[in-house]
Specification:
single chain, 354 residues, Annexin V, domain 1, two-stranded antiparallel sheet, 19 helices
């Protein structure tokens, strides 16, 4: 049964699985970004205020920026309690009322990580991710881990939306940029992922799972060197439920976890890309919980990863990520963020997590 779509949020089907529907159109003409098709029911009602009023919110932000000083509390209150779609309406209303671009106004008022997080919230997730990908490839050098983190964790619709946003924002083709900024085996897997042709039918074909497990073994452990084509086809094109069946078949027949085999057969960025694809197929919230934990582990904090994960997952699987974080690290994500951040930046992240 197909689930209905309310705004940007697909409701669950009778099986409890989220299903993809048509993306809601934005007033600005861009499409909203999809939820992960393999995520369970999401708790985003708190952001769907029935009394949402873009006019009132735009005026509230304007008054927060008026005169000497900035009322950051008002800005946090408004932006953290609205959906990405509602924030687009606030931006349009602000421009209509004051003839100014809200992002430019806030850039002049805010600074540091707080500014970065606020600007991230003002984009649609697909636009923010497109900007992050551009940043990863612009100038000398390429931030391969960032390309992997974004491209290897998104579903078909999200990839398509990111490609469209990239074209709209930069008048460039994302696939062409990825091809020219990466090389070898990493380029091949990223280009395959960018095709956005993963099977999203959740039914499992046991015979195919066994065949794929054999193909992966022959392409890796069972031969000299690694035949990446088999890995690319299976990891980038099979549905997550099909992949889970394949990994079980692999372990049953060959007595090894697929991740162990990938670690022994590949290295560097290719290993990272394959492990990310496997990790997301097995447990996407667990992948992001691990990423958040790493961003706060040891001395210093990787604030950019914190912003990226919390902002882009806020309307998809953030409740599941919080649950998984608690389970894996025996402390709440809120507690971890509170102890690793400070000031207005901390207040905004905690409001997103609330």
């Amino acid at each position: 049964a197909q689930g209905r779509v309310f705004g940007c949020l697909p409701l669950s089907s009778s099986s409890g699985e989220l299903v993809a529907g048509s993306p809601a159109k934005q007033a600005a003409g861009s499409t909203c970004c999809y939820l992960n098709g393999n995520t369970k029911a999401l708790s985003t009602e708190k952001r769907h205020h029935h009394g949402f009023d873009a006019d009132r919110d735009a005026k509230k932000i304007h008054s927060a920026c008026k005169g000497a000083g900035t009322d950051e509390k008002k800005i946090i209150e408004v932006l953290s309690s609205r959906t990405a779609e509602q924030r687009q309406q606030i931006k349009q209303k602000y421009n209509a009322l004051y003839g100014k671009d809200l992002e430019e106004v806030l850039k002049g008022e805010l600074s540091g990580n707080f500014e970065k997080a606020v600007l991230a919230l003002l984009d649609l997730p697909c636009e923010y991710e497109a900007r992050e990908l551009r940043k990863a490839m612009k100038g000398a050098g390429t931030d391969e881990p960032l390309l992997i983190e974004i491209l290897c964790t998104r579903n078909n619709k999200e990839i398509i939306n990111i490609k469209e946003a990239y074209k709209r924002l930069f008048d460039r083709d994302l696939e062409s940029d990825v091809k020219s900024d990466t090389s070898g085996s990493l380029r091949k897997i990223l280009v395959t992922v960018l095709e956005a042709t993963r099977d999203e039918n959740q039914q499992v074909n046991t015979e195919l799972a066994e065949q794929d497990a054999t193909d992966l073994y022959k392409a890796g452990e069972g031969c000299w060197g690694t035949e990446e084509l088999a890995f690319n086809v299976v990891l980038a094109k099979r549905s997550y439920s099909q992949l889970r069946a394949t990994f079980q078949a692999y372990e049953k027949v060959y007595g090894k976890d697929i991740e162990e085999s990938i670690k022994s057969e590949t290295s560097g960025d290719l290993e990272k890309a394959y492990l990310t694809l496997v990790s997301c197929a097995k447990d996407c919230p667990g992948y992001f919980a691990t990423l958040l934990h790493k961003s706060m582990k040891g001395a210093g904090t990787d604030e950019e990863t914190l912003i990226r994960v919390l902002v882009t997952r806020a309307e998809t699987d953030l409740p599941e990520i919080k649950g998984k974080f608690q389970q894996m690290y025996k402390k709440s994500l809120t507690e971890a963020v509170r102890s690793d951040t400070s000031g207005e930046f901390r207040k905004l992240l905690l409001a997103i997590l609330h």
